[in-house]
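Incident log, entry 3
Record: Fimbrial protein (296 residues)
Problem: checksum mismatch between cached and fresh output.
Input:
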Amino acid sequence: MTAGDAGRGRTTPARRWRAPIAPLIIALVALIGLTILVYPTAAAWFAQREQSRLLGEAGEVTDAHAERNAASIAQAREYNDALRAGARIEANERLPLGGGEIADDALDYRAVLDDDATGVMTRVRIPRIDVDLPTFHGTSDETLLRGLGHLEGTSLPVGGAGTHAVITGHRGLADARMFTDLDRVRVDDTLTLTTFGEVLAYRVVSTTVVDPDQTESLQAQEGRDLVTLVTCTPLGINSQRILVTAERIFPTPKADREAGLADPNASDAPWWAAILGGGALIAGVYVWRSGIVSVR
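Fresh output:
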């Protein structure tokens, strides 16, 4: 028999795929770990996307109802004139609480500055920390998971001498940034409130950390137009409060007005999805190659 005949007589072992138990477990554990790693970023991305959607819808409604906007702001100013309020922040509680008395029973807090389509009262922009968030009535936990909350019992965010609006937000949530970076805001930074088509610009005049029962600085001050942003600190303990107080800039700078009326920024590219997809692809290839066996 020639060498060629011998070569033709040999057969190449057949290959087939069998589910490899150990590699499957390794790949599954790796994917679970990768999912846990990217979850906070992914959740924050979806939260920002939803908040931008709400702001966009609120902006569209505002653009289409100029007369309603003027009437809503006028009613909010009546509310502020009638407000006799006090604010309180309970010790060791995550949620600030407010209470106030209104001289005019016809002015219902929940009905003033109420956008039926979205519920957005005002839009808060803080360029220093890249915050662009909707603000809703009240400070319930449900509200503060959607965005920021206006502290009932303080002035509504329409400006005016002798007003002091207080806006609160969570810090350190796993699935949303909210006011996590509020401690990075500095004196002389600016922020804007966009309320029913009207843009109000403010310059930060103080940043302080106070105990929960120190609420004197949240009261309105004669002749001043103020807004204070409130969140908890230290992270995870929440025993104190960060107060960032800003005073109105007159007139509203053109750049701030344009930014306050512009469409909200789109969410960043979901790079976390590429990482998760790449990890799944690598895990799949690993399992597939591990399952190839030769059969004679």
